[in-house]
Amino acid sequence: MQHLAQTTSEKELTSSSPAPMPGTMSSARAPPGHFTVLYFASASSYVKKTSETFEAPLPAAKLFDVLEKKYPGMKEKVLSSCALTVNLDYIDLEEDSGEGQLVLQPGDEVGVIPPVSSG
Amino acid sequence: MSPTEDVDAYVLRLRRQVRAAEVQLRDLRRQLVQAEKQADEARNLNKNHDRGLPFAQQSKRLAVLRNIGQEQGYEGHTNGTEDRSQYARSKRRWPLRKEEYKRYGRQLIMPEIALEGQLRLRSCSVLVVGVGGLGCPAALYLAGAGVSTVGLVDGDTVEESNLHRQILHSTEKIGMSKVDSAAEQLRSLNPLVNYVSHREHLTPQIALQMFDRYDLVLDCTDHPTSRYLISDTCVLLQKPLVSASALRTEGQLMVLNNPPRAAGDVTGGPCYRCVFPRPPPAESVTSCGEGGILGPVVGVMGVLQALEAIKIIVAGIPKPFDADRNIDISTVGREEASDASAPTQDPPSLLLFSAYTSPPFRSVRLRSRRKDCMACSASATITRASLTSGSLDYAQFCGVVNPVSVLEKDSRISANDYDAQQSMLEWFRQTRGSEVYGAMTDTIVDVREKVQFDLCHFDRAINVPWSEILADDEPLKRALEDLSARRQITVVCRLGNDSQLAVRKIRELRRRGGAIGSVETDDSLVMDIEGGLRAWTRDVDPEFPEY
After folding, report:
1. What structural domains does chain B harbor?
2. In order of start, what are the domains of chain A with their CATH numbers?
3. Residues in contact with B180: Cβ distance below 8 Å, sequence separation at least 6, in sequence order
4. Interface test with B, best of A13, A77, A116 (most B CBs within 10 A)
5. The model's pTM
């Protein structure tokens, strides 16, 4: 993947930053062989946490199924309208699910970003 | 008359006087806004005239001047000519007015802004849609920076619960139109800016006409329907859009449709639909009133919106190009921005702010326009006609359930009736023994979030938050399975929306064979309090806190 080089440098930055306060979202490195999922806004309310790790590698197209299995109803109620990012790049599961589909690698950081509309 | 009655009467009289004075004050304030607006219009036309700008507006200006009967003799008389030549001379010499150099000095001396940037700001009209938690700080900084015009759109009035974050409004403005309240405050901050009031909610029918006269739009609204509508309108009119939102401790910020190119032009920036093609399910949409919002969180987002707006304006907004008429419709008197040679744009991004995470800011790189976008792709289906005719139904697109009305009238109990029912049961229990009537005690299920439940609740109520019910059947089942002796289940929430959905859910669980309620509990004994706790405070117990 093209963005891997960038990812490494970002992670180095992250791991050298001071440890987050207890109870705050941690962007610390995932255990070996895992990728991190960050939940924002209503996604984080739904799963009642701000991040967790899953086993890698996983085709990105399978991520929603994995989440749905762990959090029944999440696909319809949250994920259907979410933007998805991998290592801070917006990805489109439908567009990217063709040839050479995106596979989530160990150390990747996935963002699940529902639209927030209030203000 | 006893002494207490005397005092009571005095209190009453004072209350009445206070109310009358408040009404009068509000009225005066409205008149002041009107008068200031008139004065402003006159000043503004004057200002344009000073710079040798629209002469076409002379007659209008004259009319305004005559109207308020001041500065007569300035126009069309001997000394008027002198004045003009003097101004013409000063214009050639110094592009800004003396007070502008002073007022904007601290940003003028920055190379990022400089004289050219200030001139661009001074000729740029910005529309702020929504004068709430985002719109207030955004409008403040834009007015402070000295844009030409700030348009304000909002149909709401100021409420007490707005004040912790909507920093243009103040306690004495409760009940006043938000737009008027904001304009008054902004005018006292910077009288050199022109303020335009749109005291109405944005609708598809009026959006095109309203946006047309502005160069840049800020989406400071609070609902998916307006987010899509504003984005679509900006694409159709080729205006850049700065969109922000905030809820609880999080915020999002995007610069959209920048550069603002026609639909189908792949070099244009993505629109809201490119990023979020599918709206969130209507029942998951949470407002600040329901979900809560921390003042500085929404404030940060509004301030960032103003910052992005200033960056876009100073960089130069490309002139919109009217595809329908195939002519340039850039407005007269506008500082020309370079078009093809426009400064390099920041690539589109989505900034996420999350106050309680580390790091609090994350910037996501967005893609360019979506190939199949309904609004900005070559295959766009959204047109000016579909907007103005109202054929595009944003409420339907977003599946708005507003207000929730899923229960029949006889499945609901009013606050007054519930009070009467409970008082009667209590009386029976006391007079005829609790064995029989004790069993008739109902189960009160309060479906508000726990933190709200902790603020205030009925003594016997149990708390099963709607969000938990939405995610999983178990909490509700668990809460209701041991209540076999009790017949009636009364569901309550803050406003009487979630409670209806919860009643529906309980009935559904019962149909699926869940052990809920007693054998005698049938659907008609599962009910909700109409209007929720708000109605309870209003109709039964005024001391019950409203928040």
Report:
1. 94-397 (3.40.50.720), 409-539 (3.40.250.10)
2. 41-119 (3.10.20.30)
3. B29, B30, B33, B197, B199
4. A116
5. 0.75
